[in-house]
Design a protein that fits this description.
The structure holds two protein chains of two kinds. Chain A is of the alpha+beta class. Chain A folds into four domains: 10-204 and 348-449, FAD/NAD(P)-binding domain, CATH 3.50.50; 208-344, Elongation Factor Tu (Ef-tu), domain 3; 463-554, Arc Repressor Mutant, subunit A (Orthogonal Bundle), CATH 1.10.10.1800; 569-623, DNA polymerase, domain 1 (Orthogonal Bundle), CATH 1.10.150.570. Chain A contains 19 helices and 22 strands. The relative contact order of chain A is 0.12. Chain B has 14 helices and 13 strands. By secondary structure, chain B is α/β, with parallel strands linked by helices. Chain B has helices spanning 31-38, 95-107, 117-124, 130-141, 145-154, 157-182, 193-222, 236-244, 287-302, 348-354, 370-382, 397-418, 423-441, 446-456; strands spanning 9-12, 21-27, 39-41, 54-60, 66-75, 86-92, 111-112, 224-230, 262-268, 271-277, 305-311, 332-337, 358-361. Chain B folds into three domains: 9-127, Probable tRNA modification gtpase trme, domain 1 (Gyrase A, domain 2), CATH 3.30.1360; 155-217 and 395-456, Four Helix Bundle (Hemerythrin (Met), subunit A); 232-280 and 305-382, 3-Layer(aba) Sandwich (Rossmann fold), CATH 3.40.50.300. Classes of the chains: A alpha+beta, B alpha/beta.
Chain lengths: 627, 461
């Protein structure tokens, strides 16, 4: 008996692009029962980490956990392919602790491909989507570069950097979607034809070095946490051996070498037109903008356990290859390092995302959804998050469910999508904790508590995950209850314990929770006072500690959320004619008409929309009886 | 809130308090009908309201009782302020008269306009541009962001610069916190906590200075509150009338006549002082009166100045004075009334002077000593504030409230820093403080913070 059924004549969803947005989307859609086709330019590169061999980091780790909590895959795949795990910001506060892991690049692709090909309802084909098929004003499929036609109810484009991709090394440039893979040349025209406006962005990557040509004896090693903490709430244990990264620095000699290449830099000479990200500047950009900085840090990241290559993170560049060599060989430990693949910059088309609804469906063509770098973001995690979001929304759209739109106080993913569709972006958009107003509530540790029930309701969260979630919730509740109900009396024995753990003995009998709120005490310090603690996992204890110790701050933030939600609950009908709203400027009318916000809250976040304009809209809505 | 423009609304359009003329505005479809029904022209030849013409006449209630002699003007829509038919009656300024006229208009089907509703109608009827619409936003949403935007427009000069500087410095702290948190792997020195504490302490000092200016000039901007306190029939109402120079309160010889508060505003050489006549202090079984007395005590506690009215012709003992209003409290003036009558022995005036009170002798009935008392009131309310400095820009009361909120957040932040709580939690107070300030200076968006980071720090890999 064959395991995989033949594909249907009409798919529910076609996903074009098998990077991190595409893979997450395809898995989610198929899990939800949508007959899904995943199209990729190169089957061997499904799930490829095109830039750093690392996943997670500040706010990004948060999103990986959120994807996982909703039943997505990035966390699971990272855990299977991870070769070094670290928790960042352990001392900077409970909300900004973030997980980051180094990946074995090939292993990551292997585990992704294994799941993709095994997934029920999901078919994979190597072909390039070139043209959208439009029927009755809706997206109805794609035509490919070799002339095949695939029909579907919805289409999701997750094309990454491939749309009209142009690769730059020095003043040389050539077409490509990624080094080694062709660009997609037809789709941009098809998007413009349906009325979307395109923009141009730029990103860059570093030269890859030959591992055996690096002198590690001179370099400081950086190891991961032991034991490694997985991303996924579902992962029990990290299986792959763990390896270190190494740290080195650029120096004045390096900077001099870089400066000799300025006149052949495609960025400085204006050859590159696209906008690059300020938080991911090329090394030539850093040297030009911060000449007073004597050195820049470089992490030498292993490309994999068996890989002969190393990724020197921190020096993305599009300088000519001879300058790249000069620069690399001026660095301690890299004096004899050989470049296997040159660093390069890539320019690509994107769709300024204010043309999208909060479901990531285009306003121009119903049934067409976009996710990932095509929406102006950067980063694997940002892409995967959008892929998941868009896939859920195709499911909602096909099954007649209400749109899946989380609120900014529920998830970083929601902050990401809301920022994109409301404010648009001028540069590749990356998530930061500072973008989330309610970041104290959006912790890695409570991602499951925030989102798993939602994923379960959608049908993404399977029984195993639901069981893990439910058990953790019970544990969490009992620890918090225990901390609040277990009272300690300041007798001699107790006072001795408290002073040993560095706390201050209370004057009267208090619950453990009160003691835990002393700044210098942690939940582990409570062990001597409450033996039950040993029966709970560290994961549960850490989350309980956060909820109890910082309760006051969390309550304050929750109050702000309640205020925010009020404005968020005022819905704006989609057919409001902003030209009829008295008191709006022409610019205001244009912006509102472009973004078409769903709520008054969203309208208020559009740049340039003043509080007065919001009042005008509110009055108009009352006038027309919409609220 | 109903925003239908079809209803007819009415309100007293002039500020409450002392004024020779009070204007009542009626606006809406039914305004002209109501006016026609109430207005009896002084001219035989009157044949209905002419647009933009002053008509002299009398307003009558439903029983044809004369309410007031008025000047009436009709402004038809859409040429009026609101864009709708509008009638304005120029009445005599007394509160009772205005209340009676307004009551009659309301009984004829108009509804009482809510604050800002005339302007709101003007806006809805397209009589206003965006700048003016912002004022509407302020009225509807104050003290929300709308008010903030308006404040930003209004805010200018020295004060604006000073608050903007504060905001920038706090924003810089936010940027430092963000960098520390969002770029943990970059080689960036975190802002040390003691440096942060210094910065916040300095911001606290700055805000406190601005707020001190508010306190200093409060009397000038907001005026003072003086409360008349004294035994029943000591002559409080007569004194108020004497100060106002005309009859307002119901003055009789029956003790306990004044039950409600009577509030009037005195203009003492440029200084506004609200004078409240409380119910006479005496034990009473009348519940209404008792409630009035309680409120009177409460008001007296809030007042800048309490005028202790003592009948000089009656026997008096110092124990009669509520200990709360001791001479040491510094907020009392002993006003010995009825000095036109033979004074009791020992004279209450001497008793009070010996107890350390400032004493002013008057006869409310004869109008003696009133000017001297007025001067004394003015000096007390100003209490060393001095004459106004035209160059000093101080925040208005809403801005001051906002600054106080920011101040309390920053005070909390200093405590948080001392407790060495983690960076992300420090952000909570700092952001609340910034968000309070942004109500004055305008919103600080996360994008601005990020812009600040990228311009100052070399971050990213």
């Amino acid at each position: 008996m064959i395991r995989k059924q033949p594909p249907p004549p009409v798919y529910d969803l076609i996903v074009a692009g098998a990077g991190h947005a595409g893979c997450e989307a395809a898995m989610a859609a198929a899990t939800l029962g949508l007959k899904t086709l995943l199209l990729t330019i190169n089957v061997d590169r499904i799930g490829h980490l095109s830039c750093n061999p690392a996943i997670g980091g500040l706010a990004k780790g948060h999103m990986v956990k959120e994807i996982d909590a909703l039943g997505g895959y990035m966390g699971l795949w990272s855990d299977k392919a991870g070769i070094q795990f670290r928790t960042l910001n352990t001392r900077k506060g409970p909300a900004v602790r973030a997980s980051r892991a180094q990946m074995d690049r090939n292993e990551y692709m292997r585990v992704v491909q294994k799941d993709i090909f095994a997934q029920e309802n999901l078919w994979v084909k190597q072909d390039t989507a070139e043209t959208l098929i439009v029927e009755d004003g809706r997206a109805a499929g794609v035509k490919t570069s070799i002339g095949e036609e695939f029909k579907s109810k919805t289409v999701l484009l997750t094309t990454g950097t491939f749309l009209q991709g142009l690769i730059h090394i020095g003043l040389e440039n050539f077409s490509g979607g990624r080094m080694g893979d062709p660009a997609s040349v037809g789709m941009s025209a098809s998007l413009e034809k349906i009325g979307l406006t395109l923009g141009r962005l730029k990103t860059g990557t570093t030269p890859r070095l030959l591992k055996d040509s690096i002198d590690y004896d001179q370099l400081e090693a950086q190891f991961g946490d032991n034991p490694p903490k997985p991303f996924s709430f579902r992962t029990d244990k990290i299986m792959l051996p763990q390896v270190p990264c190494h740290i080195t620095y650029t120096n004045e000699k390096t900077h001099d070498a870089i400066r000799t290449g300025f006149e052949r830099s495609p960025m400085f000479t204006g050859v590159i037109k696209g906008t690059g990200a300020r938080y991911c500047p090329s090394i030539e950009d850093k040297v030009a903008r911060f000449p007073e900085k004597g050195r820049h840090q470089i992490f030498l990241e292993p490309e994999g356990l068996e890989s002969p290559e190393v990724y020197p993170s921190g020096i993305p560049t599009s300088l000519p290859l001879d300058v790249q060599k000069l620069m690399i060989n001026s660095i301690v430990g890299l004096e004899d390092a050989q470049i296997v693949r040159p660093g390069y910059a890539i320019e690509y088309d994107f769709v300024p995302p204010t043309q999208l609804l909060p479901t990531l469906e285009t306003k121009a063509l119903p049934g067409l959804f976009l996710a990932g770098q095509i929406n102006g973001t950067s980063g694997y995690e940002e892409a995967a998050a959008q892929g998941l979001w868009a896939a859920i929304n195709t499911f909602c759209s096909i099954t007649g469910r209400p749109p899946f739109v989380l609120s900014r106080d529920q998830a970083y993913i929601a902050v990401l999508v809301d920022d994109l569709v409301t404010k648009g972006t001028q540069e590749p958009y990356r998530m930061f904790t500072s973008r989330a107003e309610y970041r104290l509530l959006l912790r890695e540790g409570n991602a499951d508590q925030r989102l798993t029930a939602i994923g379960r309701e959608l049908g993404l969260v399977g029984d195993d995950q639901w069981k893990i979630y439910s058990e953790k919730k019970i544990g969490l509740d009992s620890v918090i209850k225990g901390l609040n109900s277990t009272r300690i009396k300041p007798d001699a024995a107790t006072c001795k314990i408290i002073s040993e753990i560095g706390g201050t003995a209370p004057g009267k009998s208090v619950p453990l929770a009160t003691l835990l709120r002393q700044p210098e005490l942690t939940i582990n310090d409570m062990k001597g006072l409450w033996s039950d603690i040993d029966t709970f996992t560290d994961e549960i204890l850490l989350e309980a500690e956060t909820q109890v110790k910082y309760e006051g701050y969390l309550v304050r933030q929750q109050e702000l959320v309640d205020k925010f939600r009020k404005k968020e609950s005022v819905k704006i009908p989609s057919d409001v004619n902003y030209a009829e709203v008295s008191g709006l400027t022409r610019e205001g009318v244009e912006k509102l008409t472009e973004v078409r916000p769903l709520t008054l809250g969203q309208a208020s976040r559009i740049s340039g929309i003043t509080p007065a304009a919001i009042s005008s809209i509110e009055i108009h809505l009352k006038k027309i009886g919409a609220i | 809130m109903s925003l239908s423009s079809s209803g007819t609304i009415a309100a007293i359009a002039t500020p409450p308090g002392d004024g020779g003329v009070g204007i009542i505005r009626v606006c809406g479809d039914n305004a002209l009908n109501i006016a026609n029904a109430m207005f009896k022209s002084g001219k035989e030849s009157f044949s209905g309201f002419k647009r933009y013409t002053m008509h002299y006449g009398t307003l009558l209630d439903a029983e044809s009782v004369e309410l007031d002699d008025v000047l009436a003007v009709f402004m038809p829509g859409p040429g009026s302020y609101t864009g709708e038919d509008t009638i304005e009656f120029n009445c005599h300024g007394g509160r009772a008269i205005l209340a009676a006229v307004l009551g009659e208009i309301l009984s004829r089907g108009a509804t009482l306009a809510r604050p800002g509703e005339f302007t709101l109608r003007a806006f809805l009827n397209g009589k206003m541009d965006l700048t003016q619409a912002e004022a509407v936003a302020e009225m509807i949403h104050a003290p929300s962001k709308g008010a903030a935007q308006l404040a930003r427009v209004k805010l200018s000069g020295v004060l604006g610069k000073r608050i903007e500087e504060l905001r920038l410095r706090l924003e810089e702290l936010r940027a430092h916190l963000c960098v520390a948190v969002d770029f943990p792997e970059d080689e960036l020195e975190c802002l040390p906590l003691d440096k942060m504490k210094t910065e916040v302490t300095d911001a606290v000092k700055n805000i406190s200075e601005i707020l001190a200016g508010v306190e200093r000039t409060r009397a000038w901007r907001e005026g003072g509150l003086a409360v008349l306190s004294g035994k029943v029939n000591a002559g409080k109402s007569s004194l108020l009338n004497a100060l106002l120079g005309r009859n307002r309160a119901i003055v009789t010889d029956i003790p306990g006549t004044t039950r409600d508060f009577i509030e009037e505003t005195l203009n003492l050489d440029g200084l506004q002082v609200r004078v409240v006549d409380t119910a006479g202090l005496r034990e009473t079984s009348d519940k209404v009166e008792q409630a009035g007395l309680d409120m009177g005590r409460e008001l007296a506690q809030q007042a800048d100045l309490v005028l202790l009215i003592i009948d000089g012709s009656k026997d008096f003992e110092i124990e009669e004075i509520d200990p709360e209003f001791s001479a040491e409290s510094g907020k009392c003036i002993a006003v010995i009334n009825k000095t036109d009558l033979p004074q009791s022995i020992p004279s209450p005036s001497d008793v009070m002077a010996q107890a350390g009170y400032d004493v002013v002798e008057i006869s409310a009935k004869k109008g003696q000593g009133i000017d001297e008392l007025a001067l004394s009131i003015r000096d007390h309310v100003l209490a060393g504030a001095g004459e106004p400095d035209p160059d000093e820009l101080v925040p208005n009361s809403r801005q001051a409230a906002t600054l106080k909120k920011a101040l309390s957040e920053l005070d909390g932040l200093i405590q948080d820093i001392e407790m060495t709580i983690p960076y992300d939690l420090l952000g909570v107070r700092l952001e609340s403080a910034c968000s309070a300030l942004s109500e004055i200076t305008g919103e600080i968006t996360p994008q601005e913070i990020l812009d600040s980071i990228f311009s100052k720090f070399c971050v990213g890999k």
